[in-house]
Amino acid sequence: MIEKQKPLSGFTFEEVAQAMMSGINDRTNSPEFTWNFPTAKRKKEIVMSKILRDAFNSLVREIDENIAKDPDYHRDASDLVSLICRFRHENPSAKEIYPDDHIFGECFSFLGAGHDTTTYAIFWAIDTISRNPRVYSMVQKEIEGLSQRLASDGRDCIGSIPIPTFAELESLHVLSAAIKGLFYLPFNALNPRY
């Protein structure tokens, strides 16, 4: 995939992604009829979108060419692009179903489409739990207890935070009850920022 520091027409991946997400967020907060006004930010977003699409299409072509030369190329890959490319090579009619530009759309939808809704839901959950000091304290104690147990086991960490298993996360009964309780509260998805 695209390396973090690999230049994309003179830009880093972070610069391209930031410009695109900034444009998307601006359109989310403005009337639809203004979305294609030729503002400097919109022009930059269009340029960055083309750069990203070109880099992505180059990646798809590279994987396609390598699979065509060697059917076992990337056989064990589990990334979405490789899986779709392999499917297209193993099923000749699939190239019509998944042309190159559709692969870009599928991957963008898979990776980018839920970023706002997920962010808002997490924000809302944390905000709601923090507004109830009793529940917040109980959840915090439970998480800190698990974290201390895992740290004493010499567990792998992200930074200084030990990585729990799914079974260990499921053992957090207070957190689980708090999250399930959130499903019964009203959630304003249109304006979660208040």
Summarize the structure.
This protein has helices spanning 13-28, 40-69, 80-90, 94-97, 100-112, 115-130, 133-152, 166-170, 173-182, and strands at 157-158, 161-162. The chain is mainly α and 194 residues long. The radius of gyration is 22 Å and the shape is extended.
In words, what does this structure look like?
The chain has 194 residues and is an all-alpha fold. The chain has 2 domains: 13-112, no CATH class; 115-182, no CATH class. It has helices at 13-28, 40-69, 80-90, 94-97, 100-112, 115-130, 133-152, 166-170, 173-182, and strands at residues 157-158, 161-162. Strands 1-2 form a two-stranded antiparallel sheet. Strand 1 and strand 2 (161-162) form a beta hairpin. Mean pLDDT is 78; it is low at 1-5 and 189-194.
Outline the fold blueprint:
Layout: H1 13-28, H2 40-69, H3 80-90, H4 94-97, H5 100-112, H6 115-130, H7 133-152, E1 157-158, E2 161-162, H8 166-170, H9 173-182
Antiparallel strand pairs: 1-2
Helix pairs in contact: 1-2, 2-3, 2-5, 7-9
How many distinct folded domains?
Answer: 2
Structural class by SSE content: mainly alpha
Distance between the termini: 38 Å
Estimate what percentage of residues fall within beta strands: under 5%
Strand order of the largest sheet: 1-2
- Give the helix tally: 9
Can you tell me the overall shape? Answer: extended
Fraction of helical residues? 55-70%
Order of helices and strands: HHHHHHHEEHH
